Every structure is written in structure tokens, then in C-alpha cells.
Amino acid sequence: MGKLGKKARKFARKNLQSVLRNKRKLKSKFKRKASKTTGGQDVEENQERDTTNLSTERKAMAEEIEDVSLDDVFSEDDSEGLGEDSDSDVYLSEDSCCAHLTECDGESENNIDSSNGGSSLMVHNRDIRAELVKKAKRLNKLKEKDPEFARFLERYDVSIKQAKDDETSSDDEGGLDGMHPMNEDAVRSHVPKCLTSGQVDSLCNMVKKDHNMAALTCLINAYCTACHSDSKAPSASISVLSHNIQSGETFSKILMFMLHQADTIFRKLLGLSCSNCKKETVLELKNTSKWLSLKPHIKSYLRSTLFLLNQVTDSELLTFTICRLRTSIIFLVAFPTLLRKLLKISVHLWATGDESLSSHSFLIIKDISSMFGLNWFDSCFVKTYKAFINHTQYVDQRLFEHIHFLRNSYLELCSLDVQKSSNMAMKCMLHLAKILQKGRQTKKKEVVKKICSWQYINCIELWVAFISANAPEYDLHPLLYMIVQIINGIALLFPGPRYLPLRIRCIQWLNQLAGSTGIFIPVISLVLDVVAYKIAKDGGRKSGKGFELQSTIKLPKHWLKSRNFQVECISSAIELLSEHFAQWSYHISFPELATAPIVHLKKLYEITSIESSRRVIKRFIDQVEMNVDFVQKKREEAPFSPKDQQTVETFLQIERRSGNTPFMQYYRSIMSKAVTRKMISNTKAALV
Predict the structure, then answer these.
(1) What angle do CA 116, 117, 122 make, to 5 degrees?
(2) Burial label, 121 (beta-carbon count in 10 A; 0-12, 13-18, 19+)
(3) Consecutive 10-residue runs of the chain (688 residues): their mean pLDDT?
(4) What's the Cα-to-Cα distance from 634 to each of 318, 341, 627, 652, 667, rounded to whole Å?
(5) Which string of DSSP letters, residue by residue, matches 560-624?
(6) Does residue 683 contact residue 619 with C-beta atoms inside 8 Å?
């Protein structure tokens, strides 16, 4: 009998009863063997259980990554607040000095203590304030209805003010003009219940000229009162008057004197120089009698100033206050809690303030990180990084300068300790890579949206700038490898034409890293994907509105069919390829590097119908081919072998230093035109 064919054997294996009977016998044997082995568990059940476990683990990981924020890379307790300290630490005990003023301060302290003890008084005070607001509204309505009544109130207020001025002037003439030579006993008996402008001037003179401790105590208590003025009061005048400061002028004098002179007075009393004072000097003074007597005054002044920073909203006053507080920052080495509060406030003002306020706040952060040790550097690093992430969620043309300032100042902070910063940067990049990996695995909408966000993009840009700035002097190859993998992952995760701005950013980052490190990073395939996007027929239609590519990540759909989209794709590709080729235009392997892009661009030149784009492509091809011929000619004249690596690296070094080759001149012209084109497009978008 002849041999069966292939189809017959296949039919026999599937359908003959003898074959099926043999399969059943073998299957029963395998089952018996499996039951005799140790464990006795069924293999199929284990496989099903493993697959279900894997699926549940993946779902759990996806749910975890959805809840993870970009600033969760560092676990830190930021729960300390400014309202923790008791008022007994703020106000100084005056004993018998300034007796009348102490009565006034004592009343306010008793009120504070009683409010801490029971909430009934707080409720009562709140009701009184609400009633005052209602009465003020009624009074304003009466003034609007009856102009004569309003004029009567004005005349009455003027007469009352004149009477008060006469009384205070007579008091000043009788008792305060001669207070300059008074001793402490005189101060104890002549400070009035409510401070006036003249009395503040006399106290200031006594402190500046005689270093009178009793007068300093009175001024610091008044300064504390001014800084803790009630922000819930109906008006500023009521706020000031309710705290035993008679007028706004007195209020301003107290603040200005203490902010201007407090640091100088403390240093003179402690015997410290106004400059070149280190934290070790202050720590050495901690057990001396001078420090023990002045410590409550310094602590009260610093605490009140921090409270003022936390309450004031005027940018100029905040800038002035933080400038003056910076001069006294060395004293905070003895008060770590206050130093943490200052750091927290400074980071907030750095991230949210205007240009001047942000700059001065950053100087505070920089001083803390450089003066107080590595632990404080870590705290500054973490807090500023979190603030940078939280305040770069949204980007538009107006916020670019502020984000650019935040990034540059953060890099300046990292430059204080690059090794420490690089270790922390690796943690941040691993966190970014983890989010990217889960996005590519799960393709969940929430995770992908988190990656395609300005927070994520600004974090990548921050670390690209950090590596580019420090790579020439430090070994940052692990960071370089990590960030390149993340950037390539982003480009692969968002390949569509709507993500053209994101892809352009990715290629720009890779070019920046390659230029700063001198390491070849391939970008040609990413650039050719840009020119390979589907182009509309007949040149497409013109876009009716201007659009800022710089301030977006994802293009609107209507833009893909426009002529502007085609022009932008070709122009961006030529600019990115020019930058990449300019980095390697002197390399011995440039002809091989340029071969594939030239072939693709020649095909693009043939199918492109937009004349302006055709001219750009043709000029680029001509310039690259000229440089290829130049390098090939020099390569043929070279006396060394390609295996001689050291000699290869010196290839065209003279031409590289001069930088006057035709291709480099072409590259500079392309970049200048690109800057002009972006400025014009941004202007058009702003006008729309």
C-alpha cells in the first residue's frame, strides 16, 4: 500500500476513530501521572489562576498610576503652618517698664488667651464685627440719601480730629520732648496707653542712640501688634485703632523702623559685624548672656515678620519685607521652626509673585540652601520642584517668561550641589519613566492625558536643561540615557499629525542634548515622520485664524487640512534637520549620515505643490550635497585609517573652529529666519 499524502494524513489525525482513541488513552495516562506527583494541583487551574492574577495586578497598577501625581516622587510633610504658635511667644513681657502700654497689651493678650480657652468669646467677637459691618452699610446708605447729613458727619470728624491733635501735641510738649536723656525708669512711667506718632519717634531715638532695652521691648510689642492686626476688620483704620495704635501714620512708622533698623540694632547689641557673619558665630553665642537676653526680642521680631509676609498682598511691601528679612536670615539658625516657615513662604512667593518679588524670594531660598547645610538643600530642592510642577500646569504666551525664569532659577539652585541634584534628578526621571511606561502598557485615557500635559512636558524640559548645562563638567551619562529613552517613548506614544508640536519639542530636546554632550543621538527617523504626514491635495485650504504652536501640545482637527499645516511640517523638518546636520557637518561620517534624508527629501520635493516649500527643500538639498562633497574630498586626502579613532576625532578641527563653511552659514540664516517666522506667527495669533 502506497504512502498517504499530506491531506490524507491530516484528515486521519483529525477524524479516524483509532487515532482519537489513542489520544484519549494518552490523555488519561498524563492525568494519572500528574495526580501522583507532589502537590496534586491541576496545571490548567494554575494557569488560569496566574492569568487572572496578572490581569488584576495590571488593573491595580493602572488604577494606582491614575492617582499618582507628578510631585508625588518625594514624600514630605508640609503640614507646618504659621498659626501654630501661641501669642505668648509673640509678645514680650514688659514687667513694670512701659506700664501704661502694658495695660493695653495685657488686655489684648487676655482676650487672645480667653479666645483660646473658649469659643464663646470668638463667636461674640464675630457677631460684633458682623453688626459693625451692617451699621457701616446703613450709614453709607444714609449718606447717599441725605447729602446734608454726610456733610455734617465730615465737619464732626474734622473737629474731633483737631481736638485729638491738640491733646497729643500738648502731651508731646510736656513729656516726650525731653525723653532722649531719660533712663529706663522714666520710660516705665511715661509711655502712654495708646501710641502716637510722636511717642513712636521718641522710642525710636532712644533705641537708636542709647540702645534702650525697655524702649526696644515696647517697639517690638507694638510691631507685633501691627503685624497681627485683624485682617477681618471692616476697614484698615478700625484694624489699627483696635490694637492701640492711634493712626495709620503711627502704624507705618512702627513697621518701617523695625524693618529698617531691627537687624542693625540686634547685631550691635550682640557685637556682630554687619557682614561676613556665619551660622557658627551665632551658634557660639547661644549660651552667652547677651544672646539669652536678646533671644525673645529676635524671635518675636522674626515671627511677626513672617506673619506679616503671610498676610500682606501688596507686592511692593512684600518685596521690601522679604529684602529686609534676608539681612537677618543668619539669626534663624537658632530657630529651625521659623526657618521652615520662611522657606515655605519664600517658595510660594517665588512661584506666584511678579518678577521683582520672585527674584528676591529666590535669593532667600538660595541663602537657606547654601548657608544651613545639606539637609536644608534637600528641603529647598524638593519644595521648589513641587512648586515648579504645580505652577506650570497651564501655558500661554504671557506665562512663558515667568516659567522660563522659574526654570533658570531652579537650575541655579541645582548648580550649588550638582552631584546631590543629579541623584535627586534620577528619582524624578524614574518617576516620569514609570508614568510613561504605564501609559504605553495600559493606553488608559487618564494616564495618556497626564503624559500629554504641560506639567509633564515642563518637567522633561527642566531636566533636559539641567543635563545640557552641567554635562560638560560632570559625568551625567545615566541621566542622559534615561531622559533620551523617555523622550523617544513620548514620540512613539503620540505619533499622529495632531501631535506635531509635541514631536517638534521632542526632536529639539534631543538636538539640545546631543549638542551639549557631544554624543550622537539619532533624530532623522523622527524628523522624516513629520514630513511623511498626509498632505492635502492642491495645497489645502488657508487657515482663517492664527495659531500659537509654541503654546500648544495638540493641534485642532481643522488645522490638519490647512495649507499652514503643510508649510509648518516642511519648515520645521528643514530647521530640525539643519540643526542636527550642523552638529555633525565636520564629522568624517557625514556623507553616510545624510544619504537617507536626501533620498526622502527628493521624493518630497517631487510631490509638494507649494512653491515656497519646494524652494526651501531644494536649497537644503543643495547645501547638504555641497557639504557631502566637501567632507568626501577631505576624507580622500586624509592620511589615516578609519580604525585610528584618536586621529578620526581630530578630522576637520581647523574648519570646525573657524565655523565659516557654507553649510554653517546656511544654518545660521535658517535659524534667524525661523526666529522671525515664529515672532510673526505669535503676533498674528495675539491679534486674533
Answers:
(1) 60
(2) middle
(3) 66 67 66 49 50 50 56 57 45 50 40 42 68 80 78 68 47 37 38 68 87 88 80 38 59 88 88 73 82 90 92 90 91 91 94 90 93 88 92 80 92 93 93 91 85 92 95 92 95 89 94 92 92 59 58 84 84 92 87 91 89 91 91 79 69 73 88 81 58
(4) 63, 64, 11, 8, 21
(5) HTBHHHHHHHHHHHHHHHHHHHHHHTTSTTHHHHHHHHHHHHHHHHHH---HHHHHHHHHHHHHH
(6) no
DSSP 8-class letter at 193: S
Rounded to 5°, angle at Cα 79 from 73 and 82: 140
Chain center to CA of 584: 35
Cα–chain center distance at 108: 40
Asked if residues 429 and 485 have their Cβ atoms less than 8 Å apart, the reply is: no
User: Which residues constitute the domain of residue 312?
Assistant: 197-334
Amino acid in the structure at residue 378: D
Contact 572, 504 (CB under 8 A): yes
Total number of domains constituting the chain:
2
Give the Cα separation of 452 and 496 in Å (integer).
Answer: 13
DSSP letter string, 1-26:
-PPP-HHHHHHHHHH-HHHHHHHHHH
Smallest CA-to-CA distance from 542 within 565, 571, 568 is with 565
Query: How far apart are alpha carbons 359 and 345 in whole angstroms?
Result: 14
Q: Give the pLDDT confidence score for residue 2 in this predicted structure.
A: 58
Q: Where are the alpha helices (DSSP H) in 498-540?
A: 500-517, 524-531
From residue 571, how far is each of 543, 577, 624 by CA, in Å?
A: 17, 10, 16
Q: Could you tell me if residue 597 is inside a domain?
A: yes
Among 220, 213, 347, 332, which residue's Cα sits nearest to residue 268? 213
Q: Which three cell numbers stand for residue 475?
A: 559625568
Domain boundary among 314, 334, 354: 334
Contacts (Cβ under 8 Å, ≥6 apart) of 332: 302, 338, 339, 342
Whether 113 is in a domain gets the answer: no
Q: Among 309, 334, 359, which residue terminates a domain? A: 334
What letter does residue 176 receive in the DSSP assignment?
I
User: For residue 365, which phi and psi values (nearest 5 degrees)?
Assistant: -60, -40
Residues near 466 by beta carbon (within 8 Å), at least 6 away in sequence: 411, 414, 421, 425, 479
H-helix segments, 443-495: 445-451, 454-470, 477-493
Q: Is residue 513 part of a domain?
A: yes
The answer to the question of residue 406 being in a domain is no
3-state helix, strand, coil in the chain (%, to 5): 75, 0, 20
Report the Cα–Cα distance between both ends of the chain, in Å, rounded. 89
- Cell numbers 498610576 correspond to what residue? 65
Provide the sign of the torsion angle of the four alpha carbons 121, 126, 127, 131, taken in this order. Answer: positive
The reply to whether the predicted model has a pTM over 0.90 is: no
Q: 483-491 long-range CB contacts below 8 Å, 24 or more apart?
A: 483/429, 483/509, 483/513, 484/510, 484/513, 484/521, 485/433, 486/429, 486/432, 486/433, 486/436, 486/460, 487/460, 489/433, 489/436, 489/437, 489/440, 490/436, 490/451, 490/460, 491/526
DSSP character for 134?
Answer: H
Which one, of 269, 278, 268, 256, lies nearest residue 323 by Cα? 256
- The pLDDT score that the predictor gives to residue 144 is 78
